[in-house]
Design goal:
Layout (H helix, E strand, L loop, with lengths): L1 E6 L6 H5 L6 E2 L3 E4 L5 E4 L2 E4 L9 H7 L6 E8 L2 E9 L6 E2 L5 E3 L2 E10 L6 E10 L2 E12 L10 E7 L3 H16 L9 E7 L6 H4 L4 E5 L4 H15 L6 E5 L3 E3 L2 H11 L9 E3 L1 E4 L5 E4 L2 E3 L5 E3 L4 E2 L3 H9 L15 E2 L4 E5 H7 L10 H9 L3 E2 L5 E4 L8 H19 L7 H14 L3 H15 L2 H5 L3 H11 L4 E2 H8 L11 H5 L6 H10 L16 E5 L7 H4 L4 E6 L4 E6 L2 H36 L2 H13 L1
Helix pairs in contact: 5-20, 10-11, 10-12, 10-14, 10-19, 11-12, 11-19, 12-19
């Protein structure tokens, strides 16, 4: 039987208007998209579809599915044209035209069908086509397909679970796109796709989102982990029962074709990858052609890192590199890349895995997705064009997440389910605390200490629905940045004019020698083994406000730091305060002493709690308690 793999798609979104080469490359001519998803090529021009969204990743389809041969179907009318097949392998920077593959498209006022077999050879990563025409050529119903035995097509019931907290604009827009381009179509997925919106903020209008296949579930604010746990439960209890649950963030922009391709892929997945997680890529909302991540890993030092280098998907070689990347796990220095996970901005999980491994840990936000992948140990499927657009983390640094949650949650994960054994998360807590202290950010350093202290309370602490309260407290207690107009009044005395600052000036560091570095380390940038404060002459330095940066040379010798968040046009003045340093550092040392004394006991307590904390029974009771609190 013929089995569709992927549609040839165009878009009229702002992303497409500003980044057209994600969909089609052309040096001349114009493209016109119509409401019925057909489109017109307005010549004279050459239209190359060897792109991120419209090239077929034949290498990946052969690896993950039962597909062996690949075909292109399209229907056309209008002026004459010529279609030529294209291909690209790991060494290509531009698409290669396949000699002898030319097909004449005769001029016609009636719709004509074209079906051709793609010339795929060993080593090809992508296969596609280009069309040249001197006139107007209308195209509709264009897609790639394969031929498979009916017995090889798996029954798939796909459930999308998205957790939201007062992100109405994103949800309403995405649901409309899904209804129009997935549910209300003749695609195979349309009658096998249900959407579960878990509304942690209980702010969505039911009439605006719900239909026969879209369900709204008001939920207590139990964070991403609680929202996705609820979504998993609803997917397993829906009728018909889901075979796969696709977890997706709320603050994303979707391309509906990603759902269609995911469904088609799952339908003909081979036995080797039948239990794999499908991990969609994160494209940048700020730079829409930039793929920032599709898989992540925990480093030896306990940091979250993208597995692949980022790449601009408007550049064909970056598209190829995304598909061909292989982690250097054979290198002893890089074996931490084996600690690989799929982020829940777009992650499709088989229900059989959920039934075997349980639900997420009750962490509220951060680390829940990483822990789940590492606990389940699946194979991963990634593929060009299966993606969402998401705000880059650079634009949304939040100390309540990056200090309190990140100090607590990875340790909870590691002690409960044994994940990421190569990572030293305690050492990472130390780094977070000392980094903020060196930059006089005492509020955020204290958040990291508090996260560590809450971890030390054992599993009884997270067994009760206290995570929202603790997160909100951390959010209230984090360092508060103020708008530039208010900040300018505070920095006038230091001769700083915010209007004249440049990004390079803010992020630039200054050199220091080894003796200076040793002194900074020992004294915590002049705060320890110092008899009195105020010897630095009130010198101010301008630095980036992001918590992960360490402008060591620039901050040494300064008594005032002006931390700038340039994307959000705000900042804060920090002043050296030895009394506050001593308060935070003493509290951290006390917590570390407790940890070293009770490490083994904590491991045993958390490990014993694993089965309970990941069970459906626990989560149903937890959600009821949370709604009553």
């Amino acid at each position: 039987m013929q089995f569709k793999l992927a549609n040839i798609v165009l878009s009229d979104s702002s992303f497409a208007l500003n980044n057209p080469t994600l969909w089609c490359r052309r040096e001349s001519g114009h493209l016109m998209l119509h409401e019925d998803r057909s489109f017109s090529l307005l010549g004279p021009g050459v239209f190359d579809f060897t792109t991120y969204f419209n090239a077929l990743s034949t290498m990946k389809w052969k690896r993950y599915t039962v597909a062996k041969d690949f075909y292109l179907h399209l229907e056309y009318r209008g002026g004459a044209g010529c279609l030529v097949q294209t291909a690209a392998d790991a060494f290509d920077w531009s698409a290669r035209k396949i000699t002898g593959s030319e097909v004449a498209l005769d001029a016609s006022s009636e719709w004509k069908n074209l079906d051709l077999r793609l010339s795929v050879i060993d080593g090809d990563v992508l296969n596609s086509f280009e069309i040249s025409t001197d006139d107007k050529l209308d195209i509709k119903n264009a897609f790639y397909y394969t031929c498979v035995d009916e017995v090889d097509v798996r029954p798939v019931e796909l459930a999308l679970a998205t957790t939201t907290f007062k992100k109405e604009s994103y949800i309403y827009k995405n649901i409309e796109l899904i209804k129009a381009n997935v549910l209300d179509t003749d695609e195979l997925i349309s009658s096998h796709f249900q959407v579960h919106i878990v509304d942690n903020g209980r702010s969505l209008c039911e009439e605006r989102v719900c239909c026969s296949n879209v369900h709204l579930h008001p939920n207590p604010n139990v964070g991403g982990s609680g929202g996705f746990a609820r979504g998993m439960i609803e997917a397993m209890e829906q009728s018909p029962k889901a075979t796969h649950v696709l977890l997706m963030d709320d603050d994303v922009e979707v391309m509906p074709e990603s759902f269609i391709r995911t469904y088609n892929l799952l339908s003909i997945v081979n036995s080797k990858y039948s239990e794999a997680f499908v991990s969609g890529a994160m494209m940048s909302l700020e730079e829409p052609d930039l793929r920032t991540e599709d898989l992540g890993f925990f480093t030896y030092k306990g940091k979250f890192r993208p597995l692949k280098p980022s790449g601009h998907m408007s550049i064909l070689h970056d598209v190829i590199e995304t598909e061909t990347f292989v982690a250097p796990t054979e290198d002893p220095l890089c074996q931490d890349t084996l600690q690989c996970y799929a982020g829940w901005w777009f992650c499709c999980i088989p229900v059989s895995t959920i039934e075997r491994e349980g639900l997420p840990l009750p962490l509220f936000v951060r680390s829940d997705d990483a822990e789940y992948s590492l606990r389940c140990k699946p194979k991963f499927i990634t593929m060009n064009s299966i993606c969402v657009w998401h705000a880059s983390f650079f634009f949304k640094y939040n100390a309540a997440v990056e200090r309190y949650q990140v100090s607590r949650n990875p340790l909870v994960c590691q002690f409960t389910t044994g994940v990421a054994p190569l990572s030293d998360f305690v050492e990472e807590v130390y780094r977070e605390v000392q980094l903020d202290l060196k930059k006089f950010n005492y509020d955020d350093a204290l958040l990291a200490v508090e996260g560590f202290e809450d971890f030390l309370k054992g599993p009884s602490f997270i067994r009760e629905p206290v995570t929202e309260r603790r997160f909100l407290e951390a959010n209230r207690n984090r360092e508060r940045l103020v708008p530039f107009k208010d900040l300018q009044k505070q920095v006038d005395d230091y001769g700083i004019n915010l209007k004249h600052l440049t990004h390079s000036e803010v992020i630039r560091d200054l050199p220091r020698n080894r003796i200076e570095a040793a002194k900074d380390f020992i004294t915590f940038n002049g705060q320890r083994y110092v008899k009195e404060q105020g010897k630095r002459g009130n010198r101010a330095a301008v630095i980036d406000a992001a918590g992960w940066v360490y402008p060591a040379g620039k901050i040494r010798g300064a008594e005032v730091l002006v931390a700038i968040d340039m994307p959000n046009r705000c900042g804060v003045v920090r002043k050296l305060d030895i009394a506050r340093f001593n308060e935070v550092w003493t509290r951290f040392r006390k917590a570390m002493k407790f940890y070293k004394k009770n490490e083994q006991k904590l491991k045993e307590e958390y490990s014993r709690a694993r089965a309970e904390l990941t069970s459906i029974e626990f989560w149903k009771k937890y959600l009821i308690k949370a709604s009553q609190s």
